[in-house]
Amino acid sequence: MKHQVSWGGKLKSYLEWPIFVVVLLLIMDVAIFVCDRHAGLIALLFTCIYLIVMIALFFVYRPSVMKELVSFAAEYGQVQRQMLEDFSIPYGLLDVDGKTIWMNHEMQALFRKNNRYHQVITTLIPDLCLSQLPHEKETTELETAIAGHNFRVQVKRVHIDEWQSSSDLLVVPDDQCYLYTVYMFDDTELMKYMRLNEEQKLVTGLIYIDNYDEVLDSMDDVRKSLLLALIDRKIDKYISNHQGITKKLEKDKYFIIIQQKYLTSMQDSRFSLLEDIKTVNVGNEMNITLSIGIGTDGKNYQENYSFAHAAIDLALGRGGDQAVVKDAVSITYYGGKSQQVEKSTRVRARVKAQALLEIINAKDDVVIMGHKITDIDTFGAAIGIFRAARSVGKKAYILIDSNSHSITPYLNMFLENRDYESDMFINHHMADELVDDNTVLVVVDTNRPSNTEYPELLERAKNIVVLDHHRQSSEIIRNATLSYTEPYASSACEMVAEILQYFNEGVKLTRIEADCVYAGIIVDTNNFLAKTGIRTFEAAAYLRRCGADVTRVRKIMRNDVSAYKARAEAIQNAELYHECYAIGILPSKNLDMPTIIGAQASNELLNIIGVKASFVLTDYNNIIYISARSIDEVNVQIIMERLGGGGHMNIAGAQLAGITAEEAKTKLKETLDAMIAEGAI
């Protein structure tokens, strides 16, 4: 039996309302008939006429109305389909498996496919992985390049469960009652103008001549003006080639402005001006070196200038001959390959000594802290500051790491000596009780907060003094009242020895105190072989006058036989990577101070012909310690910085946690490979 098409929904209710009117009219007729028979008959007549007309209209026009409704629905669906077909952006539908079901004309033209193409969408948009298809009400967005255009692809999930429940054409599982819609917005023009806007941003920078006075002092007066003219010309030409502006601020300082796009080319060439300026020679005995600080990506020009100042300070603090680029979130270093020239003047040391004296005199107590796993350089520097504080009648304390076995012989000299108070050395708990507003916290041999013996103490202290010889990194102690960082110095002990000579008209160390400071210089200079200058020997001479004994220090520094064998094994099994990088692993089992032995082994590896840099890895307390050394050809500091460490150009180190020695060795090799490919080393 064939079923006729019938009305339904709200349309059915709308068309049935005349029936209710007829019922109401009949009730009205009965009421009128009761009142007046003739009037009732007349009303009944008109009601019958209304009923006949209504029935005639309903049955006569019903097929026409139905036809027009169906026609409208069909035309409306066709209009919708045509609108999607002619949609000005590429648009398509995917099934639950990510396969294309339908594409409009724009999408077909873009991919040169038709609607018979039913493959996974990744064959058309490789950047859109199936795992990226959205869940529920999520929207997936990604950037991709197709046919030379940049598209922003937007994928949404569309549920069809209502349509599925009202249709018997398809039977779809409940968990698959959805499709994916793909919209592709052509952002090529937008990206172009955004890129142009980014490239045309102004970048500010500062250029300082590192060794201006030293270079000019080595020349006769006739050639000085020629040299300065050549330097100006080199800098002006370099900046002009990058469409920039140069303004000379002082005799050795320049201000520059360039566009962002030219900064990229400068970075790609690793600031070739750094090496080019060294070729200027008109009889000067030493090469000219520059420091460059660049500020970019700030909110305004003033912030860029502030970034440039911070960058040039970092470049100078790291020894000069390098460029530092600072933006709102990161700092990047370039260069730093030259040996730093030692400054012969002691003016800065004298000024810092007087400032330190004033700070200590204004407070009650002094707490001295170094870096984690205290070494002899840290210990010697702390002893020197201890004596300085005691010389002006202030109570001083030294915070010592309990794991610092390498300084045990030196520590015992004080613990067994009745001339020193029993509370001279303190632990973390005691430091918490001591540090207050009337305490000076002196940090020696490190300028990185995370590397200090007790980082939390820096947050509590109101008066902080930093004395360090390591090159600065982006992580520095920022709230210091006094910061004295000299990368040219061989050791923290050398710096302290200089300060003591100007502190309160000179400080006289005791013999054991002088031994400790002297030992710090010996260890960090590898017996005066590395990073040693005139001021290093002057500091050593001062310590000798205070009673330091070379023989006594040498006896204390001797190793036991197990340490000696471990060092020999690390050297014997060292690998020569790229024919010039010696990499060894120290067997640290049953060693009291393996990190010190690792440093000694690293120094020994430099005695091999052809070795430019040496690296010895030591596993200690589940942390891999890397001791890096070089003579003059490789800057090991920038290598260690890639691994989260730091140090000097010739002496540096890093610590890696959560990996084995072999894994650390592989990571070191990968870092060396990357830096060689970049031209960084």
TrEMBL record:
PANTHER family in alphabetical order: BIFUNCTIONAL OLIGORIBONUCLEASE AND PAP PHOSPHATASE NRNA, CYCLIC-DI-AMP PHOSPHODIESTERASE GDPP
Domain DHHA1: 599-677
Homology family: Belongs to the GdpP/PdeA phosphodiesterase family.
Domain of life: Bacteria
Keyword Transmembrane included in the entry's annotation: yes
Swiss-Prot/TrEMBL keywords: Cell membrane, Hydrolase, Membrane, Transmembrane, Transmembrane helix
Assigned EC number: 3.1.4.-
Entry protein name: Cyclic-di-AMP phosphodiesterase
Entries under Gene3D superfamilies matching the protein: 3.10.310.30, inorganic pyrophosphatase (n-terminal core), PAS domain
UniProt source species: Jingyaoa shaoxingensis
Major site of localization recorded for this protein: membrane
Catalytic activity: 3',3'-c-di-AMP + H2O = 5'-O-phosphonoadenylyl-(3'->5')-adenosine + H(+)
Transmembrane segments: 17-34, 41-61
Broad enzyme group: hydrolase
Compartments, as annotated in UniProt: Cell membrane
Function: Has phosphodiesterase (PDE) activity against cyclic-di-AMP (c-di-AMP).
Sequence ranges assigned to domain DDH in this UniProt record: 366-521
InterPro entries: DDH_dom, DHH_sf, DHHA1_dom, GdpP/PdeA, Oligoribo/pAp-PDE_c-di-AMP_PDE
